[in-house]
Amino acid sequence: FKNQKSKFRIQNSKFKIMPVNYQPLTSEQIFQIPNIFLNSVIAEIRKKDRKDLTLITLPENSTVAGVFTKNKFCAAPVQICKEHLQSANHKIRALIINTGIANAGTGEIGYNAAKEVCKNLAKTLNINENQVLPFSTGVILEHLPSEKIINNLQNLSNDLSNSSKAWFVAANAIMTTDTVPKIYSKQVKINENLTITLNGMAKGSGMIHPNMATMLGFLAVDIAIPAKVLQQIVSDVANKSFNCITVDGDTSTNDSFILISVPNASNKNISAENLNSDEISILKNAILTAATELSKAIIRDAEGASKFITINVYNGADENECKKVGFSVAHSPLVKTAFFASDPNLGRILAAIGYAEVANLDVNKIKVYLNDLLVAENG
């Protein structure tokens, strides 16, 4: 179109939307965790040409903990995951993940469909029903085609693998509007005799808002961690990673972040209870780093994202006060549009700080920096 000041040409062309400065791992860069097995298949839950159903199986001595969405319309699989984690005392043996349909807002029908999947998978794997955790992501307010999932359970269980490729394929299979898979894999030295492996994958691009984003995240570590400690770790880690990201301010119905502890056969006599405080700190920091990298990957691949921005807030009265200021700036549509247009309209940042509802805020003590450049001080 034309106007008096500018002329623009829009033409049809094929182009690929890429995440902001994010290159996913290849299958060759992923470490193996011997006792975790995965498989993904095409179940045609919503599309006919892509893998959309994933099974993860865990050994008998595994421990699993998780945190979930705070949306009151939480999906049926979220409800069941909470119930099964409690009734099985965190001794979970299988995770079943589908994309395409979220199974949220589907009432009793949706709940029963997810339970039927758990029941049939338990029968296939010869485990208890409450040892199965179901996860769904996709369109809200549509019923889950549970028969398609059930019909593929035998195929899933027949071809399980603990290979690096299986992790890579699974990370692709759990995607919805993501443009690339989000994968993390690293080995961390805890002490001279102990090196742990962390493998993780996540999905999420839209409806990104704290508590949590519209995301699924799965992170496994090959060391024994007691259930109570594992739950504390996953809660703390989520608050410092997945609960610190935002794109569009919407909180989804299906958000789940799962932390899996699987003792390594070569380290079977070593557990978190055997470690000293410094070693525990290394372990926790390794898990936090993994979750942080996965949460950043979600932001870099956010729907419509062209920039990745970190907001650091220092010297507040407490963490809650700092988060108020940070999220006030992050959620501001005017701040977002300024950054998108590379327009240095710094007053929008000051305005967002001012309405952050921080008690007794003294604006004369606030300094604002863009990277290392001081742009505002003394009010």
Report on the structure:
The chain is of the alpha+beta class and 379 residues long. Helix content is 32%, strand content 19%. It has helices at residues 76-87, 107-125, 146-151, 153-158, 164-173, 227-240, 277-300, 319-331, 333-340, 347-354; strands at 37-41, 53-57, 63-68, 94-101, 132-139, 182-191, 194-203, 216-221, 256-261, 368-370, 373-376. The strands form three sheets. The chain has a five-stranded mixed sheet with strand order 3-9-8-7-6, sandwiched between helices. It has a four-stranded mixed sheet with strand order 1-2-4-5, sandwiched between helices. A hairpin with a 2-residue loop joins strand 10 (368-370) and strand 11. Helix 8 (319-331) crosses helix 10 (347-354). The radius of gyration is 22 Å and the shape is globular.
- What does the radius of gyration come to? 22 Å
Strand content: 15-25%
For the biggest sheet, the summary is: 5 strands, mixed
Large-scale geometry = globular
How do the SSEs run, as a string of H and E?
EEEHEHEHHHEEEHEHHHHEE
How are the strands of the biggest sheet laid out side by side? 3-9-8-7-6
- Give helix % range: 25-40%
Count of DSSP H/I helices: 10
- Round the mean pLDDT to the nearest integer and report it: 90
Distance between the termini: 43 Å
